[in-house]
């Protein structure tokens, strides 16, 4: 059986398989079939593959050298289903993004600097550009460091992700054209600053917003109805088989942050919150009239916007001019877990 060169990395609070595009079949259908067999999908345990039986660990990055002058590498994110044989390219992943710069250096796509390296990354899913900056002492990626992020044990080297460089105008930021919409009698703000998100007050679902993942499982049907309709309003079409939009319930902070969140991805409750999801939620709360703005405790100007989630907080920075996003950024970490050859199960 022919194996495929693969690097498994933890990126932020996610884990995924990283591939060079040239190591995968050129046909999207053949590529997706191979990746499903690599991950062990469909199977709730993914026992015959390298997936971790959870959406946060059933992710793939496909990376190649960029042809454009504005980026060094192109990054395609693919979300693979666990119990269902689905492969979606309808969203970005900011956590897996954290590993793209180091992976590009490890694979020789970008030359490492003597102390630090910055890699310009085109997020193929949406066309946006992010710059990742990370330590490379002596021209080698150093994954060790003192940066801690909620949801990940221990510390690692900081990776600064800067989403500046391309402004996001109102019509892209608010895809329904409105700051507020009403769906199923629930007021929502539909926002997209890197991740399509439906923001709703937890109280509108009859919950506090501080519940555990298991306690919120009963909301799945209502969340699905909400996001199906929101998907149509946001121009995403039928999202019944898609992983976006995410749905984030917000409540007043209770751990020193700006806002407390519980996010469905799309129907399982996230153990934390995605990077771009947090950026989108924080951006929404900066808009006058947005759902949840009245619940937020804003920090002094210039301080990061701290988004509370079930396992801690995620700090983001957003620069807004009216309803136009100027810049956004976040600090993440990543770590190489293995580098070698993965062997997919046989084709049916």
UniProtKB/TrEMBL annotation:
Domain of life: Bacteria
InterPro entries documented for this protein: OMA_tautomer-like, PrpF-like
Gene3D superfamilies linked to this entry: Diaminopimelate Epimerase, Chain A, domain 1
Record keywords: Isomerase
UniProt family annotation: Belongs to the PrpF family.
Protein name: 4-oxalomesaconate tautomerase
Organism annotation: Actinomadura meridiana
Source organism phylogeny: Bacteria, Bacillati, Actinomycetota, Actinomycetes, Streptosporangiales
């Amino acid at each position: 059986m022919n194996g495929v060169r693969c690097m498994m990395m933890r990126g932020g609070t996610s884990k995924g398989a990283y591939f060079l595009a040239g190591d995968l079949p050129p046909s999207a259908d053949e590529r997706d079939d191979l990746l499903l067999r690599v991950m062990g999908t469909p199977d709730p345990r993914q026992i015959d593959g390298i997936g971790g039986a959870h959406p946060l660990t059933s992710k793939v990055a496909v990376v190649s050298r960029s042809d454009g002058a504005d980026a060094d590498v192109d990054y395609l994110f693919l979300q693979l289903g666990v119990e269902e044989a689905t492969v979606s390219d309808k969203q970005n992943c900011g956590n897996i993004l954290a590993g793209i710069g180091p992976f590009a250096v490890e694979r020789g796509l970008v030359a490492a600097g003597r102390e630090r390296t910055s890699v310009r990354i085109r997020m193929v899913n949406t066309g946006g550009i992010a710059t990742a900056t990370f330590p490379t002492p002596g021209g080698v990626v150093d994954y060790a460091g003192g940066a801690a992020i909620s949801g990940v044990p221990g510390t690692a080297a900081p990776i600064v992700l800067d989403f500046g460089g391309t402004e996001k105008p109102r019509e892209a930021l608010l895809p329904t054209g409105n700051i507020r919409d009403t769906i199923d009698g629930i007021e929502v703000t539909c926002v997209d600053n890197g991740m399509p998100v439906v923001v709703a007050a937890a109280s509108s679902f009859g919950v506090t917003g501080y519940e555990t993942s298991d306690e919120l499982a009963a909301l799945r049907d209502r969340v699905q109805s909400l996001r199906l309709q929101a998907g149509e309003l946001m121009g995403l079409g039928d999202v019944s088989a898609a992983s976006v939009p995410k749905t984030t319930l917000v409540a007043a902070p209770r751990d020193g942050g700006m806002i407390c969140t519980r996010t469905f991805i799309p129907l399982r409750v996230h153990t934390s919150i995605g990077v771009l999801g947090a950026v989108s939620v924080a951006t929404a709360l900066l808009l006058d009239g947005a759902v949840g703005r009245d619940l937020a405790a804003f920090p002094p100007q210039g301080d990061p916007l701290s988004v509370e989630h079930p396992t801690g907080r995620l700090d983001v920075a957003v620069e807004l001019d009216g309803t136009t996003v100027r810049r956004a950024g976040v600090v993440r970490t990543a770590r190489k877990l293995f580098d070698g050859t993965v062997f997919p199960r046989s084709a049916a």
